[in-house]
Amino acid sequence: MEFKYVIINFLILVTVLIIVGRKTVKRIFGGRYERINSDLDRAEEIEKMPMPFYEEPTVEAVDTDCSEETDKAQSVVAEKIASIEAFGEREKSEVHRGMIEDARKELFSVMKENVISLFSYEKYQNAVRALDRQVIDEILKRISLTPGDMAYLKHHDVLYVTLTSAYPLSEDIVADVDRATTQMLEAVGGKTSLWVLEDSSLVGGLRLRIGDTVYDGTVAEELYQFEKNMNHEPIMHDDTVGHLIQEFTERAESFRPRIHQYQLGRVMSVSDGICWMDGLADIMYGEVVEFECGERGMVLDIQQNRIGCVIFGEFEHIESGSRVRRVGRIASVPVGECLLGRVVDAMGNPIDAMGYLPYKQTRPIEYKAPGILERAPVNSPLHTGIKAIDALVPIGKGQRELIIGDRQTGKTAIAIDTIINQKGKDTVCIYVAIGQKDTLVAEIKEKLEAHGAMEYTTIIAVPASASAALQYIAPFSGSAMAEYFMYAGKDVLIVYDDLSKHAVAYRELSLLLHRPSGREAYPGDIFYLHSRLLERAAHLSDELGGGSITALPIIETLAGDISAYIPTNVISITDGQIFLDAELFNEGQRPAVNVGLSVSRVGGAAQTPSMKKVSSSLRTRLAQYRELAEFMQFGSDIDEETKKTLASGRLLTEALRQARYAPIEDNMQAILIFAVSEGYADGIAPEGMEKFEKELYRYFAEEKAELALKIKNADRFDDELKKELREALSEFCVRS
Ligand code: ATP
Ligand code: MG
Predict the structure, then answer these.
(1) For ligand 1, is residue 501 a contact (CB within 6 Å)?
(2) What is the CA radius of gyration of the chain?
(3) Where a domain ends, among 572, 607, 642?
C-alpha cells in the first residue's frame, strides 16, 4: 500500500517538476538560443557583404598628362587672385572684407573640385596608393579601445571594425588590420568582425573604424580639415588668400595623408530642434557634435542607449540615419578684444556685416565660478549715472544686481544708460539680448554708437526667432566673453536682457528632452541654471589680477508679482534688486525705481564718501514723503510742518527724475542731492526743477570745477567740504 503511495507521490512530483522546470529552462536557455540565431543571421549578412578585392592592382603607371587640368585650375586661381587684389587697392572697408570672404569660399570650392578630379587620374591615384602601407601602419600604431568600446563589449561580444578605401586594397593590408584588431580585442575577451568597403567619395587613402572611433587618413578628410581651418583663419589681408592658395597647392601636389581621429554616431530621430543619437560612445555633457549637413549641436542629455542634443541652426536638413561626428570639445565661443564693437550671435559668429572676427582664442561657455578665496570684497562703485540708483541702490564692481519690473517699465533703458555711462571708465560692456526683437537690438546698437559706447561694448543678439538652444546658451557665451576680460584684470559689465525669456527657452528644451517638469512647468534645475550663470560674476582677488564682472540680469514680472517662481529664484541669487514700478512709470516718474522694494546688499561700500554721506538720509526722507502723500490724498488740514516735509519730498522725487541717455557724473549727483535736501531748491516749483538742475551742473562745471573735483576725490565728506559747498550753493542761489 505504502509503496503505491510513494510511486504516486513520485509521479506527481516529476510531473510538477517537468511543468515548472520546462518554463524555467526555456527562460534560461531561450534567450541564448535566440541570440545564437541572431548571431547566425548576422554572420550570413556579413557573408553577403562585398568582399575585398585582394589582387594587387595591375594597372601600369600610365603617365597621364593632366597638365591641361592643372593649367585650367591655375588660371581660375589666378583670376580669383586678381579680383581679390583689386579689392586690396581700394580702401579695405568692411564690405570688401565680406567680398574677399566670399571669393575665398568660391576659390576653395574650385580648388576642391580640381583636387578631386586630379585624383581620378591614375598617376595621382597611384601616388596615393603607394602610401597605403604607410597610412595603415600609422593607424595600427594608434588604435586602442575607448571606455565606450569597453562598455559596449560588456553587453555585446562583437565589436565591428570597418576598413574603407576609395579603391580596392591589397590583401596583406586587410590581413594586417584583421590581425591587429583581433589581437586587441582578444586581449579584453572580445571578438571583432571586419568589414571591408569601398567608397569613391573618400577620393583616396584609408579609413578604419573601430566601434565608434574613426582613424581617418583619406583625401576627403584632409579636404574637410583644410576647409574647416580655412573658415577659422582670419582673412584680413589679401596676402592671407595668397598664402592659403600656396599652402593648398603644395599640399595637393605632395599629398601626405595625416591621421585624424574622431568618433561617429548615428542620428536616430530629429524633431523640434532636438536630436536623439546613438553611438558616440565617449561623448561628454555639453560637447559639440557636427552633423553631415554641417549644422552643429550641443549634447544636453546622456542616457544609456541614446544621447540627446540641441541643434543650434536649422534642423530640417538633418536626416535620421545620417552620421554625426564628435567635435571633441565643449561648446566654446571666441573671446578677446576683437569682439568689442561687434554684434555676434550666441556662438560668437559676427552678424553685423563687418566681416570676419579675427579672434585668437576661445573659451568654453560653461566655466567654474571663482571660489571664495579667489574673490575680493566688492568695494568700488560701478556708477550707472542714474541718480535714483547711484544714490539709493548703489552697485559695486563684481556685484549682481537684478533689474526687475513689468513689461515696458524702462528695464532695458537702465541697462543701456549704465553702459553709456561707462565711457572713459575702462570698463568693458557686454549686452546679451535674449529673445528680443531684431529692431530693438538694432536701435540699441545705433544709440550706443551715437554715444560712442560701442567701442567698448559687445552685443550678443539672439532674437525671439532663434532656436531655444541658442537662446539658452547666449548668456553663458556672454559670460565666457566677460571672463576673458575679468581674468585679464579688467572690469566688465554684463547685462542679461532678459532671464525670464532665458528660463522659458530652457523650459522648452527640457520639456522636449522629456525631463520631468516642476513648478510652473519649469524643470527642477532652473535655479541651478541661473545660479551657476550669475555666480560667475565676481570681484577677483589681487593675486588673480583684481578684475571683475558686474552682472545686471533683467527679469520681467507679470502685474508686479515678484513672488512668482523665476523672480524669487533670481532675487535670491542676486545681491539686490532694482524694482521698477509700472504705476510710477505711468505717472511719469522715470526711471520708475520703487525705493521701498529696491535694495542693494552691498550698499554704501560701493559709493564714494561724498555720495554716501549725502544720500544717507535720502531713503527715509523719500519713504516719509510717500507715506504722507498717500495719507494726504484723503484731504485734510495740513499744518505748516507737514506742508514743508511734503514740498521738500516732492522736490526730492522730482530731482530723481532723469531722461534716457543722459548719465550724470557721480559728484554732480551728490551736489544736486545735497542742494535739494539742504533746502537750496525750496521755493522752486516742481516744473522748474529740470532748469534748476541744468543750471546747477553748468555752474559747478564751469565756475566751481575745482570744488566739484574735490568732492569727487574726497576721502571724507567732512564739515570743511560741506561748508565750502554750502557757500558755493548760496552764491548760486543768489545769482539765479
Ligand atoms: P520690455 O518689457 O519691452 O523689455 P522695458 O521694461 O525694457 O520693456 P524699455 O524698453 O527700457 O522698457 O522702456 C520702455 C519705454 O519707456 C521706452 O519707450 C523708453 O523710451 C521709455 N523710457 C524708459 N526710461 C525712460 C526715461 N528715463 N525717460 C523717458 N522715457 C523712458
Ligand atoms: Mg526691455
Answers:
(1) no
(2) 36
(3) 607
